[in-house]
User: What shape does this take?
Amino acid sequence: MDKFRIKGGRHLRGRVTISGAKNSALPCMAAALLTSETVILHNLPYVRDIITQRRLLEDIGATVLMPELRTHKITADNIELFEAPYELVKTMRASVLALGPLLARFGKARVSLPGGCAIGTRPIDLHLAGFEHLGAEVGLESGDVVARAPKPGGRLLGGELHFDKVTVTGTENLMMAATLAEGKTVLHNAAREPEIADLAELLNKMGARVRGAGTPTIQIEGVESLGGAEHTIIPDRIETGTFMVAAAITNGELEIKGCRPEHSAIVIAKLREVGVEIEELNQSTLYVRCCGSGLKASDVTTEPHPRFPTDMQAQYMALMTQARGRSVITETIFENRFMHASEMQRMGARIQIEGNTATVEGPTQLTGARVQASDLRASASLVLAGLAAKGETLIDRVYHIDRGYEKIEDKLCAVGADIERIRDSVTGPLTEGGIQNPESRSQKG
Ligand code: UD1
Assistant: This one.
């Protein structure tokens, strides 16, 4: 498996351009299953999860053309298989996003239950309860979730449902399913992430009638069929946040282009509070640098959007190792999402974990060490820690980072980082774009 070797201590300087949001691209690709016409998506990030999602669509019977690296033309006019196979679902949990569209359009769908996961159990019970609420019969057959519409090949029935817990992909799955249901559906306590609004925009371009996406109440008037559409995926707010931290943790300065600052408002506010200087140069550009007087500690709690995102928790922890004072980081979304902490401790960080809180004492001079990436965002935090550390850091299992960050080492090198990918010739051939397809992967992020 590939590794990253980082020689820390360099101040990052220059410009970096943000890629499309993986977490928006995945549901938008699944939405193409709702129609027999062509859906054209631009600004897809070139990352492993998108390749996996493309394979899933192709396995199901869709045709996916790539006129350009970041553009997919998806036509699902010849669907024969109504299921997402275990081989793909086990590598990427977001494969469950195929359920809603398949069930809504064809009245049946089968998806393997996602397996165990390193950042908690992450069930899909809320997705399934939602489908049942729309009249589907949902059961488990040989480890697969099988869902059927009330009448064979028939439509789902609109209804009013309340999510007991805010779920991002659950909201997306139900929103997609409801577009083709009979009558009106109202989703209460829906997730409000920008990716939900982006998906709704695509669905409406396809002829759906979705209102309120981005608020806790989403209303969907079902229509009989949807058509083709063309859509550009929003920039990745987590990649934006990661580069903001990269500028701050290396005492550098970065111009971050092609982002949407309003999607990162809470992260920008938090980073300003701890002493990072952030200027909005225009609607899509941020200028970030660490202030001369250094960083100060501050507590943070992860919560659903618009509060502080769990996907930035690990990167924030890396930053707090460099801040003056004690910061308490509370993780409320996922259990077991502190695995990066023990790796940072090996680099000299002073972090204590108790239940769902991590207490970081700073600042510490981190020193390079051999560490292991455990999930997508944890890997990013170790890269950040490595950039700040004295000496050499070797990060193992970087396939996790390839799932969601487009060529992070190239982007970091371009702004002065000393980071290189060490290819592993033993694991087997590399696939498209040099992104490795490891034998065993897990499915976080
Ligand atoms: C999405 C994001 C992921 C992010 C997470 C939280 C994608 C592809 N991934 O993941 O990067 O970290 O949101 O912002 O968009 N839950 C249940 N039952 C369910 C569904 C969820 O109990 O049926 C729980 C989960 O275990 C978790 C919480 O709800 O504790 C939130 O999970 P959810 O928002 O569904 O995360 P994902 O959509 O998988």
Remarks:
- Residues 23, 26, 93-94, 120, 122-127, 165, 167-170, 309-311, 333-334, 445 surround uridine-diphosphate-N-acetylglucosamine (CB under 6 Å).
- The chain has 14 helices and 24 strands.
- Confidence is low (pLDDT under 50) at residues 427-444.
- Residues 48-60 form the longest helix (13 residues).
